[in-house]
Amino acid sequence: MSARHRRLPRHRAWPLTTTDINECLGHHMARVTDLGFLTGHDSGTIVLGAEWIAPVPSNYGRGVHPDMVGFRIDVHPVDAVERAATRAVLRERALPQLHEWITEAIAADETWKSTPRRHLWRLTHGRLTHRDEA
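and the corresponding structure tokens:
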């Protein structure tokens, strides 16, 4: 995202771009219903998040609109001085893991797909970890 369209303070930056995500996911990008670059408060050690939006049945007017069923990806901001190093780690390790997670989710059975899911990548002192979270 260009500096002209920034919605972050100067000391914060997104470690990935839309192009990075598109290159990683390829044709799976068609299953992504929302790609967000977060601007809110500090996410701590979270640098990337993926979520499966399940087709929750409608009860009393509540439910998920069919257009929202799919994957949501959030890129969390990091300190601007750490952007390049974080980007390298995410491109090398997290993006292939994201691709694998989405590929497995697409092939999953209906039981898996009927429940909302969330997967987060955290970077702490240069160490990348990831896991499903509630």
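(Above: one complete record from the training split.) The first helix runs from residue 18 to 25.
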